[in-house]
Amino acid sequence: MAKVAGYHGEVRVVSTAAVAGINQWTLDYTVDMLETTDFSASGIASYLPGISRWSGAFSGFKDGTPIALGVTTTVSVELYESSVTKWVGTAFINGVHPANNFDGIVQYAYDFTGTGALTSATA
């Protein structure tokens, strides 16, 4: 499998507008595992997949006016790994973290929690 350089990444929210200044995103896509072990299992655990969930964050430098994302804002999220490979879903913004330092660049970080299905990256 070919490696992909991270500099092709991008975050788009709210009608697929690219979020300026973003230089990092993360995504956690998990499923609850429900234990089904019973007395007949001879000491070996068994499981079934339960509810899946996804969440993540994106962050970067302030570049112009910050996008109007407050907590509980619902957005369409597109997390690009490359120009053609992306993860897509609807999410709630559940954290906004501006940061400033006297000798640095103003930064913004956003946390999100998915609601509904997540379209997995393909390509």
Produce a short descriptive summary.
By secondary structure, the chain is an all-beta fold.
Descriptive report:
The protein has a single domain, classed as Elongation Factor Tu (Ef-tu), domain 3, CATH 2.40.30. It is built from no helices and seven strands. The chain has strands at about 10-15, 15-20, 20-35, 45-60, 75-80, 85-100, 105-120. A seven-stranded antiparallel beta sheet has the order 2-1-5-6-7-4-3, with no helix packed on it. The protein is elongated. The chain starts with 9 loop residues before the first strand and ends with a strand.
Strand tally is 7
The share of residues in helices is: under 10%
Number of self-contained structural domains:
1
CATH topology: Elongation Factor Tu (Ef-tu), domain 3
Question: Could you tell me how far the N terminus lies from the C terminus, measured between alpha carbons in angstroms?
Answer: 11 Å
Tally of helical segments: 0
Shape: elongated
Overall average residue pLDDT: 86
- Taken in chain order, the helices and strands follow as EEEEEEE
- The strand line-up of the biggest sheet is 2-1-5-6-7-4-3
Low-confidence segments, given as residue ranges, are none
Structural class: mainly beta
Task: Show the helix and strand layout.
Layout: E1 10-13, E2 17-18, E3 22-35, E4 47-61, E5 74-80, E6 86-99, E7 107-119
Antiparallel strand pairs: 1-2, 1-5, 3-4, 4-7, 5-6, 6-7
Question: Which features would summarize this protein structure in a list?
Answer:
123 residues, mainly beta, Elongation Factor Tu (Ef-tu), domain 3, seven-stranded antiparallel sheet, 56% strand
